[in-house]
TrEMBL record:
<dbReference type="InterPro" id="IPR023574">
    <property type="entry name" value="Ribosomal_uL4_dom_sf"/>
</dbReference>
<dbReference type="GO" id="GO:0019843">
    <property type="term" value="F:rRNA binding"/>
</dbReference>
<dbReference type="InterPro" id="IPR002136">
    <property type="entry name" value="Ribosomal_uL4"/>
</dbReference>
<feature type="region of interest" description="Disordered">
    <location>
        <begin position="44"/>
        <end position="87"/>
    </location>
</feature>
<keyword id="KW-0699">rRNA-binding</keyword>
<dbReference type="InterPro" id="IPR013005">
    <property type="entry name" value="Ribosomal_uL4-like"/>
</dbReference>
<dbReference type="GO" id="GO:1990904">
    <property type="term" value="C:ribonucleoprotein complex"/>
</dbReference>
<keyword id="KW-0687">Ribonucleoprotein</keyword>
<dbReference type="GO" id="GO:0005840">
    <property type="term" value="C:ribosome"/>
</dbReference>
<comment type="similarity">
    <text>Belongs to the universal ribosomal protein uL4 family.</text>
</comment>
<dbReference type="Pfam" id="PF00573">
    <property type="entry name" value="Ribosomal_L4"/>
</dbReference>
<dbReference type="GO" id="GO:0003735">
    <property type="term" value="F:structural constituent of ribosome"/>
</dbReference>
<comment type="function">
    <text>One of the primary rRNA binding proteins, this protein initially binds near the 5'-end of the 23S rRNA. It is important during the early stages of 50S assembly. It makes multiple contacts with different domains of the 23S rRNA in the assembled 50S subunit and ribosome.</text>
</comment>
<protein>
    <recommendedName>
        <fullName>Large ribosomal subunit protein uL4</fullName>
    </recommendedName>
</protein>
<dbReference type="GO" id="GO:0006412">
    <property type="term" value="P:translation"/>
</dbReference>
<keyword id="KW-0689">Ribosomal protein</keyword>
<feature type="compositionally biased region" description="Basic residues">
    <location>
        <begin position="60"/>
        <end position="71"/>
    </location>
</feature>
Length: 206
């Protein structure tokens, strides 16, 4: 069972917490991590690229000249691919790039991502993040106190002031316990989570 320090928003250590091995101490499966990241990026793709084939381009209904006797190569349409203004050969059409991961695979990948952050000492637990007002400077001060530049901050539900205070910091993304994903955990250098958020994650994913 991993034991990590708990800090306050001033960056001072105020205790420790035991992390559940069922979530934060699993064997890291790199193949599943890769599949989860590729799946998430593929599912974001719009797949709306489109070009017209010769059957879709306007015009070209009439044969440009007779079949024989002109000295030209025979042509059936001015919208064939070799003509200016003609259609595209094997033109791209809208498609769906997404593919599905099973529920068990998703959970295992998420646990692997969290475990990798704990093993790399890039998982920071805060006792709480409570701001009386929405102020970006307050959140930036917390990051400075923890000596963190780029972070994924996992908050418990209802912590609106902290969410909005972090919104204007480009190197920080906030997430709730039900929206965390493998891509964000691996993308950001550090994962910061409140004690309440850690307890919720352990309840849901253990």
């Amino acid at each position: 069972m991993a034991n990590v320090s708990v800090y306050n928003i001033e960056g001072k250590e105020v205790g420790t917490i035991d992390l559940s091995d069922a979530v934060f101490g699993v064997e890291v499966n790199e193949h599943l991590l890769h599949m989860a990241v590729v799946s998430q990026l593929a599912n974001k793709r719009q797949g709306t690229q489109k070009a017209k084939t010769r059957s879709e381009v306007r015009g070209g209904g009439r044969k440009p000249w007779r079949q024989k006797g002109t000295g030209h190569a025979r042509q059936g349409s001015t919208r064939a691919p070799q003509w200016t203004g003609g259609g595209v050969v094997f033109a791209p059409t809208p498609r769906d790039y997404s593919f599905k991961l099973n529920k068990k695979e998703k959970r295992a990948a998420l646990k692997s991502a969290l475990t990798s952050r704990v093993e790399e000492k890039k998982f920071i637990v805060l006792d709480e993040i409570n701001f009386g007002e929405i102020k970006t400077k307050n959140f930036q001060n917390v990051l400075n106190n923890l000596n963190v530049a780029k972070a994924l901050v996992v908050l418990e539900d209802g912590n609106k002031n902290a969410e909005l205070s972090a919104r204007n910091i480009p190197s920080v993304k906030t997430a709730r316990t039900n929206t965390i994903n493998v891509y964000d955990i691996l993308k950001y250098n550090t994962v910061i989570a409140t004690k309440a958020a850690v307890e919720t994650i352990e309840e849901v994913y253990a």
